[in-house]
Design brief:
The protein is of the alpha+beta class and 254 residues long. 39% of the residues lie in helices and 15% in strands.
């Protein structure tokens, strides 16, 4: 057994750091590149084109995509699996594409191909789980207020690591419009808190004692932090619509 830890590779296989075993599924990415005719494509450094915001496809864009005769659901499923299993760096991009799964256009297809280009250039990236980590559970929450140009809804993102290895990650669009940055940030914090409470319960059930210490959550919004730690902003007009979430997070903090 390696003294450093374990790697969870792009294929979802656990293997020792110094003798990584290539198991079934190793050539999954190459298969996708060949399937969609871009095996010789250039690599990219980001999963989504910088400063690009996907929106609903126009009728012309939808018709242009249909001419390709590609099963977008099948294509999307291939990267959605990677995102949820071993690729947290795809979470935001996959979440953006998911919104247009019903009526994809040519732009969504180009974004999918861009993801494959990114994966081609980052095949060696893996999740590392140190054998003797001492950090406990550390979590981060954030929100991009009004990210969706079509609906004005915000995007929540959060992740949590245990002993230095990522164990939770998620990006999702809110179900309603947030009227302030504080409100959008607090929704993300509430979702993360639910995940962390489950994680603590599960680790307790399997006997992982070093996961039972108070969890450190990082957030960059001061209004959100103040609301979680005190009653000072409970009646603030920007927060009155999330009072149940406020109570839920405060109870977990206490």
């Amino acid at each position: 057994m390696s003294q450093e830890g374990y790697i969870w590779s792009k294929t979802g296989t656990i293997s020792m750091v110094h003798s990584i075993e290539r198991m079934v599924g190793e050539n999954r990415l190459q298969y996708l590149l060949n399937l969609y005719g871009i095996s010789d494509c250039k690599e990219t450094s980001t999963p989504l084109v910088r400063n690009e915001h996907l929106g609903p496809a126009t009728g012309k864009e939808i018709e242009s995509f249909k001419l390709l005769k590609v099963n977008f659901r099948s294509a999307f499923g291939s990267i959605n699996y990677l995102s949820s299993a071993t690729r947290p760096n795809l979470a935001h991009t996959v979440g953006s594409l998911l919104q247009y799964l019903e009526h994809p256009g040519i732009q969504e297809w180009k974004s999918f191909l861009h993801i494959l280009q990114y994966l081609k250039g980052s095949q060696e990236l893996s999740l590392l789980y140190p054998r003797n980590g001492k950090e406990g559970i550390i979590a981060y929450s954030d929100a991009d207020w009004g990210n969706c140009k079509a609906t004005g809804r915000s995007i929540s993102s959060y992740l949590a690591s245990f002993e230095g290895g990522l164990v939770i990650w998620k990006t999702r669009k809110h179900q309603s419009v947030s009227t302030s940055t504080a409100k959008s940030e607090y929704k993300s914090l509430c979702d993360l808190t639910s995940e962390l409470l489950w994680l603590k319960q599960w680790t307790a059930e399997v006997g992982i004692s070093n996961a039972q210490s108070p969890i450190l959550i990082w957030n960059d919004n001061q209004s959100c932090i103040n609301t979680a730690n005190s009653d000072s902003n409970f009646n603030h007009k920007c927060m009155k619509h999330v009072h149940i979430q406020i109570h839920f997070v405060r109870e977990a903090v206490q």
